[in-house]
């Protein structure tokens, strides 16, 4: 992974790098392949932060279009993943700014009430519900990292772009979140291995 | 914080857990991970929770993006030329007599920019008639029959690209309106190419190779499109595919005859008499004329490959690489190789 020095890029990352270079040279087919790779994650990220389906469709289209335009204008895009999620984050924030509601992604994240949606609509076992409720004891950043990582299925680099932090910081937040969660679960005897 | 070694171990186990493996499995693979088993148990729990999903349709969103990318590319082309055309508008820098000329140049630039911008248009779009007019002029300006055939080949390639563009970029209702007609025009243009090539007694190797390349591409794209278009358009796609295969078969046959002629000529000039010529058959296993048994008559790249003893290879595998611009293996390459 490009986020730390001790990881070397895997084949998938190399492919994405090659596709990014080709797309930056104007190859639309390469960009379509990048789109296919990142659409599931980007659309999930946007859909869960914008309630309206049509608006979400427009925003996702705008995110990738902006990605294409940026590729044509800049030769300094080292990581497409990081770039596209930065655009997605900014686009979602802009959307709420134009609606004159709130523009803070953390507030937005908390307003989504993932737990309400999932806990009530899906038949989770009691242990899972307790576990989800336990996430409430974590700090805002810690909750957001875990949500983006495990509910949105994103990588540290992508989370870093969304949260405007470095991948290293994301890893530290994740580590502290897990340690805090372990402590809380142990103290309340909720921890089952 | 953990040390770097534990951090790597944690990330590796994390990857496995996110892929649905258990903590026990991780520890079995990485015994040192036992010391972080509690943390891995939490990760395992988090990984097993339901994921957020998106109900958006990837194809619908891509059509929106592709349309805008195409438009911005057209606009960029237009801007590039329009930009040059605008320079003479600085009329004060020119003597009065030159201003008329400058105006003409500017107008020509504007017309040119429209024509260039039209090149990326699709059937049903405003600039499409301009594109077709440019094509008609192009055909009229072609000086001889070979040039005219080359222009027709180019036009057939454009119809094919348009058919792809229609499916990828236009909204479904618009696609319904124009896809059948475009495929029909592709078929007609390919038939015209076939007729022109046949009427020239197939003595132009370069032209025949272009026809084979064209039909190779048509085969790949139309096969792909057949799975994407509506039932109404499927019939047109099938007919166009048949025409492409027939045209390719005829072109490959002509190339084979041409190659045989060259080979025999070379052999004769070396003072040798090819057995096959004596027997009235071809010496080339790949390029032998296909006239006798319909069972053995190759009509596609696949059949040709099977004749070469490679029954597992298929035409699609050969002509649709992941990066078409990087790998250009076609029927022609196969003929050359063999």
| Number of separate helices of chain A | 10
Sheet with most strands of chain A: none
List SSEs of chain A in N-to-C order: HHHHHHHHHH
Please count the helical segments of chain B: 14
Structural class designation of chain B: mainly alpha
Shape of chain B: elongated
Helix content of chain B: over 70%
Cα radius of gyration of chain B in angstroms: 29 Å
Describe the oligomeric state of these chains in a short phrase.
heterodimer
Q: Could you tell me the number of beta strands of chain A?
A: 0
| Average pLDDT metric of chain B | 70
N-C termini distance of chain A:
29 Å
Strand residue percentage of chain B: under 5%
Shape of chain A: elongated
In short:
Chain A is mainly α and 193 residues long. Chain A is built from 10 helices and no strands. In chain A, 72% of the residues lie in helices and 0% in strands.
Please tell me about this protein's structure.
- The complex is a heterodimer of chains A (193) and B (338).
- Chain A folds into two domains: 1-105, Rna Polymerase Sigma Factor, Chain: A (Orthogonal Bundle), CATH 1.10.1740.10; 119-193, Arc Repressor Mutant, subunit A.
- Chain A is 72% helix and 0% strand.
- Chain A is built from ten helices and no strands.
- By secondary structure, chain B is mostly helical.
- Chain B has helices at 4-18, 23-29, 37-48, 58-86, 96-118, 128-141, 145-169, 172-199, 205-226, 231-269, 275-279, 301-307, 315-319, 331-337.
- In chain B, α4 (58-86) packs antiparallel against α5 (96-118), α5 (96-118) crosses α6 (128-141) and α7 (145-169) packs parallel to α9.
- At the A-B interface, α2, α3, α7, α8 and α10 of A face α1, α3 and α4 of B.
């Amino acid at each position: 992974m490009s986020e730390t020095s001790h990881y070397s890029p895997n084949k998938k990352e190399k492919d994405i790098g090659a596709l990014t270079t080709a797309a930056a040279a104007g190859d639309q087919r390469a960009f379509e392949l990048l789109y296919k790779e990142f659409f599931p994650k980007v659309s999930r990220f946007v859909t869960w932060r914008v309630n309206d389906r049509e608006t979400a469709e427009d925003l996702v289209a705008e995110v990738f279009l902006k990605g294409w335009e940026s590729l044509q204008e800049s030769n300094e895009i080292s990581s497409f993943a990081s770039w596209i999620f930065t655009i997605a984050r900014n686009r979602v924030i802009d959307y709420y700014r134009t609606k004159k509601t709130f523009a803070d992604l953390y507030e937005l994240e908390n307003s989504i009430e993932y737990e309400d949606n999932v806990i009530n609509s899906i038949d989770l076992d009691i242990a899972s519900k307790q576990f989800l409720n336990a996430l409430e004891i974590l700090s805002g950043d810690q909750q957001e990292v875990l949500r983006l990582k495990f509910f949105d299925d994103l990588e540290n680099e992508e989370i870093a772009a969304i949260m405007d932090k470095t991948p290293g910081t994301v890893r530290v937040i994740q580590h502290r979140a897990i340690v805090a969660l372990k402590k809380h679960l142990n103290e309340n005897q909720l921890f089952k291995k | 914080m953990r040390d770097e070694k534990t951090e790597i171990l944690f990330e590796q186990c994390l990857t496995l857990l996110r892929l649905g493996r258990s903590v026990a499995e991780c520890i079995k693979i990485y015994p040192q991970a036992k010391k972080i088993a509690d943390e891995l148990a939490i990760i395992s729990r988090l990984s097993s929770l339901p994921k957020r999903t998106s109900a958006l349709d990837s194809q619908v969103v891509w059509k929106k993006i592709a349309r805008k990318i195409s438009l911005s590319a057209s606009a960029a082309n237009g801007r590039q030329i329009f930009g040059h055309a605008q320079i003479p508008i600085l009329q004060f820098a020119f003597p009065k007599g030159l201003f008329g000329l400058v105006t003409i140049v500017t107008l020509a630039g504007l017309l040119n920019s429209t024509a260039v911008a039209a090149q990326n248009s699709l059937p049903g779009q405003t600039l499409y008639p301009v594109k077709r007019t440019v094509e008609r002029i192009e055909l009229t300006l072609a000086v001889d029959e070979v040039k005219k055939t080359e222009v027709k080949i180019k036009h057939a390639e454009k119809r094919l690209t348009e058919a792809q563009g229609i499916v990828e970029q236009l909204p479904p209702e618009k696609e319904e309106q124009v896809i059948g007609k475009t495929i029909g025009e592709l078929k007609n243009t390919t038939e015209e190419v076939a007729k022109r090539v046949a009427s020239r007694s197939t003595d132009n190797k370069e032209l025949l190779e272009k026809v084979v390349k064209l039909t190779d591409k048509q085969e790949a794209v139309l096969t792909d499109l057949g799975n994407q278009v509506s039932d109404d358009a499927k019939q047109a796609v099938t007919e166009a595919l048949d025409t492409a295969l027939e045209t390719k078969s005829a072109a490959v046959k002509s190339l084979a005859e041409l190659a045989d002629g060259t080979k025999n000529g070379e052999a004769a000039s070396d003072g040798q008499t090819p057995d096959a010529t004596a027997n009235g058959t071809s010496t080339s296993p790949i390029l032998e004329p296909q006239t006798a048994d319909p069972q053995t008559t190759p009509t596609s790249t696949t059949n040709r490959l099977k004749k070469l003893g490679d029954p597992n290879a298929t035409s699609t595998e050969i002509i649709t690489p992941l990066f078409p611009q990087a790998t250009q293996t076609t029927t022609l390459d196969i003929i050359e190789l063999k």
